[in-house]
Specification:
The complex is a heterodimer. Chain A is an alpha+beta fold. Chain A is built from 14 helices and 18 strands. In chain A, a hairpin with a 5-residue loop joins β8 and β9. Chain B has four domains: about 90 residues, Alpha-helical ferredoxin (Fumarate Reductase Iron-sulfur Protein, Chain B, domain 2), CATH 1.10.1060; about 35 residues, no CATH class; about 130 residues, Rossmann fold (3-Layer(aba) Sandwich); about 110 residues, Rossmann fold. Chain B is built from 25 helices and nine strands. In chain B, strands 1-3-2-4-5 form a five-stranded mixed beta sheet. In chain B, strands 7-6-8-9 form a four-stranded parallel beta sheet, sandwiched between helices.
Chain lengths: ~450, ~425
């Protein structure tokens, strides 16, 4: 990186916010995938004003700029493939205001989502979106990828809670969208436009988020099935009975085995699949009634055992198990490709069948878990990237996974985003008209193509 | 690179999928908020360094030394990667590639020699004994010291007149009937700085039916050398300590230092590849008990004295994570009449001591400490108990910096006071 640009960045942020040693650059080239590419410089900003000046500088000098939170993404969206500046927002981690009267929180983008939840929880408020990376991802990253999570079945995704954003545009100007308003139809919904834009349209630096009342009671059950097929059928059986659980999660046998190996919770290993079901609400009796109804349905659909967590510790253990599934799979292989295809929920059993068929065809394991209740599955291919034979199959297998999702009326990604990894399938998923409209939006907002270039759109 | 070097193996990093879970629990990441200061970052650097993608530069080694070795990342990783251990392995590797002479002198020739350490720390005892320290505090002279020196001064507890090693008998008889014959491993920091506490540990053991054998020629457990990438020195020290306790003829060896305990329990692993010593080391390690662990495993006399105070407890990393001991010290405190035990928020979060980080990584250590001090203040406790001299020194700095009226104590020292029936204010 040019010395004068480093000097200018240091002037904007201060020396401790500009990293340029080979070691610093080496650790800002990856996210939660296997992709890796060194940036030319890393800046750790503290204010929206600094972001504005950095982006203006990047625009002046035509330097690519990739925004990054805690780097837990699963689509390589924050990997700086073209080098340039990595703009890390982790030090913008202040909760600016908790407005109890309106149940709205104003946060900087670098706040860790779990910290936000804890802070509002202490006041009896609730921020529902709960990606599994909740403790190691930032709210800015969650918004930029419109993150989901188990609770989205009942409570909706991140985007459903974003009321307004502060965004630094590609020329450095600062845009404010929305406000502390539940209803707002004045002009285009720019808040929604930037939500899920993966850093390609602007840099989200602050957000106004809607909170809800905290559900006072919750019951969680682990339901074990001898057959994966029965577990996937059960998902619809529960939902068709008029119950909307707070979460309805599927884990297959490999997922369970990996978690058990990691956490030693005493999970049964002789099952093909388990469902994790949670009901919650303000009234204890109805929460209890619902979990009992769930248990009854599960028994009818072939569950081997229904275990309802006795106390908060057991419940926390079950959730820890669920959140650990994805990383725990790495016990089996050095690399994994975790997708998050989404299908209409009635197609879940068929999707599971076809995923197993792909696995059999290529001879590499596909572990299946995910948010079955909302049709969002996480098939994870386990492999060793150093084995060229395996590595060649990965692309073909991913392509077949995406094809099956589209065939069943679904799409490529429910919550991880497109990033770099799903770009080749965009046209197939969206069709030429949608893609063309989206490219024009990108061109209008980032004419120089400096914001996270080479992401989302196929070349 | 020659092949006889011992370097971390591929299995120690290969399966790291860079999920980032470890960032959530890393005390340095949470303060510095930069990937470079994170466990995942250190694993990536180790890998890239070992695989030749990066040079094994001083800065790369420096990142390995920036780890506080609190082990929280080891614990949370669902894949089974042990980033803290890998950072240690990299320190060792770096030391083999580019040995640093002063380290060999400090860790090989000074620290493991009790007589030399006692001589080296003599000025500190004079400082306390002649009342200079009292004057420094009474006249506010302390505030004239530069910030860092002031903080280092604040680490010191009330120093003993003589190191405990010179005072404690080789054999301490049980008060009444002798039911257990136990060895006592007297750690350096305990002997030199926290002599009163180890004296209390021995009293508590004797009161509960133990005849205590304290070999005087023990050397440093080895943790400092291990932390500075010199495991061969640790092995030498281990052999000395193992042989000494074999002669003592005891089935159980108690220590009241969390760090010593965790290192002594690791001798088996450290000497596993040494045919002459592997079995002896494994046997030795299997006999090591933290004092709280041992006391709660025997029928412990309920103390009758009252300590009317609010007390909280900080989990030393080397006790909670390295040894899996966290219930026993709390149970000991809860036995004491009048003592109101209050759980410390984030009790098992590193205090930032990590041995010498306050000296080597002052800024980060202070930030980590602040988080701890904030939590201590929130409990409104009058005492913070913790069975680790490193933690105690760091906590001393924390409460003094903030002007809290909180005393830092070893949990067993409080038990000793309760046995002696001393009424607290």
């Amino acid at each position: 990186m040019d010395k004068s640009i480093i000097a200018q960045l240091e002037k904007i942020i201060g020396k401790d916010g500009v990293l340029s040693t080979p070691e610093d650059l080496a650790v800002y080239g990856y996210d939660g995938t296997f992709e890796d590419h060194r940036p030319d410089i890393v800046v750790l900003v503290r204010t929206t004003e600094q972001v504005s000046q950095v982006v203006a500088l990047a625009a002046r000098e035509h330097i690519p700029l990739v925004t990054r939170g805690m780097g837990s993404g699963l689509a390589a969206a924050s990997v700086p493939f073209q080098g340039g500046i990595v703009l890390a927002l982790t030090r913008m981690n202040r909760i600016l205001e908790i407005d109890q009267a309106n149940a709205i929180v104003n946060v900087e983008a670098g706040v860790v989502t779990a910290d936000l939840q804890t802070a509002v929880d202490e006041l009896g408020l609730f921020y529902p979106p709960d990606p599994s990376s909740i403790r190691h991802s930032t709210i800015g990253g969650n918004i930029a990828c419109n993150a989901g999570g188990p609770r989205c079945l009942k409570y909706g995704v991140t985007g459903d809670y974003v009321l307004g954003l502060t965004v630094v545009l590609s020329d450095g100007r600062i845009l404010h969208t929305g406000g502390k308003l539940i209803k707002d139809v004045v002009g285009y919904d720019l808040t929604a436009l930037f939500t899920g834009s993966e850093g390609t349209l602007g840099v989200i630096t602050e957000a106004l988020l809607r909170l809800t009342a905290k559900p006072k009671f919750a019951r969680t059950a682990l339901v074990e099935f001898a057959a994966l097929e029965d577990a996937s059928r059960t998902v619809n059986a529960i939902l068709l009975n008029g119950i909307v659980p707070a979460a309805l999660e599927l884990m297959d046998e490999t997922a369970i085995a990996c978690v058990e190996e990691a956490l030693h919770l005493g999970l049964a290993l002789d099952v093909e699949a388990s469902l994790l079901v949670e009901t919650d609400g303000a009234d204890e009796a109805s929460v209890l009634r619902e979990i009992e109804a769930v248990a009854k349905i599960c028994q009818e659909t072939g569950a081997r055992q229904v275990k309802v967590a006795k106390d908060e510790v057991e419940r926390a253990n079950l959730w820890q198990a669920r959140r650990s599934v994805s990383p725990a799979l790495a016990r089996k292989a050095p690399n994994k490709l975790g997708e998050d295809i989404t299908v209409p929920r009635s197609a879940i059993p068929e999707a599971v069948r076809r995923l197993k068929a792909i696995s059999a065809k290529y001879g590499l394991p596909i572990v299946i878990f995910g948010h079955a209740g909302d049709g969002n599955l996480h098939p994870n291919i386990l492999f060793d990237k150093r084995d060229l034979g395996q590595w060649k199959k990965i692309g073909l297998m991913a392509a077949e996974e995406f094809a099956l999702a589209l065939e069943l009326g679904g799409t490529l990604s429910g919550e991880h985003g497109v990033g770099a990894l799903k770009r080749p399938y965009m046209e197939q998923a969206l069709g030429p008209v949608s893609l063309e409209v989206q490219k024009r939006i990108k061109a209008a907002l980032d004419p120089l193509n400096i914001l996270n270039p080479g992401k989302v759109f196929p070349e | 690179m020659t092949s006889d070097l011992h370097k971390p193996s591929e299995t120690e990093y290969l399966n790291c999928i860079r999920c980032g879970l470890c960032l959530a629990v890393c005390p340095t990441y949470r303060e510095v908020l930069s990937e470079t200061a994170s466990p995942r970052g250190r694993v990536a650097l180790a890998r890239k360094g070992l695989e030749g993608e990066l040079q094994l530069s001083p800065n790369l080694a420096g990142q390995m030394y920036a780890c506080f070795d609190c082990l929280a990342c080891n614990d949370i990783c669902p894949v089974g990667i042990r980033p803290a251990d890998l950072a240690m392995g990299m320190r060792d590797f770096q030391e083999q590639l580019q040995p640093i002479k002063w380290k060999k002198t400090l860790f090989g020739r000074l620290i493991p020699k009790p007589i030399r350490m006692e001589a080296a720390t003599w000025p500190l005892r004079v400082y306390e004994k002649l009342g200079i320290r009292h004057l420094v505090y009474a006249l506010g002279l302390r505030n004239l010291l530069p910030g860092k020196v002031r903080d280092l001064e604040a680490m010191l507890p009330h120093l003993p007149q003589r190191p405990l090693r010179q005072v404690l008998p080789e054999i301490t008889e049980a008060n009444d009937e002798s039911r257990y014959r136990v060895g006592f491993f007297l750690g350096c920091a305990q002997s030199l700085l926290f002599a009163g506490e180890s004296a209390a540990s021995v009293r508590v053991l004797a009161r509960n039916g133990c005849t205590i054998i304290t070999p005087k020629e023990t050397v440093c457990c080895g943790m400092p050398a291990l932390g500075y990438g010199l495991p061969d020195l640790v092995r030498e020290q281990a052999r000395v300590n193992i042989a000494l306790f074999e002669k003592a003829n005891v089935e159980t060896i108690v220590t009241d230092c969390a760090t010593c305990g965790s290192t002594l329990k690791d001798y088996g692993k450290l000497l596993a590849d040494d045919p002459a010593w592997a079995d002896r080391a494994a046997t030795f390690s299997s006999r090591i008990r933290d004092v709280s662990e041992f006391l709660m495993s025997i029928p412990l006399e309920k103390p009758q004295g009252r300590i009317g105070a609010r007390v909280t407890y900080h989990d030393p990393c080397h006790l909670r994570r390295a040894q899996g001991i966290w219930e026993q010290p709390r149970e000991i405190l809860k036995m004491i009449n009048g003592l109101e035990f209050v759980e410390l928020p984030e009790a098992d979060w590193c205090c930032g001591s990590a041995g010498s980080q306050l000296i080597t990584h002052y800024e980060t250590a202070l930030k980590v400490l602040k988080r701890k001090t904030d939590n201590i203040a929130s409990t409104r406790a009058g005492y913070i108990a913790s069975g680790c001299p490193g933690c105690q020194m760091q906590l001393n700095v924390g409460v003094r910096r903030r002007g809290l009226d909180v005393q830092v104590v070893h949990p067993v020292a409080l038990l000793d006071r309760a046995y002696n029936g001393k009424k607290e204010k």
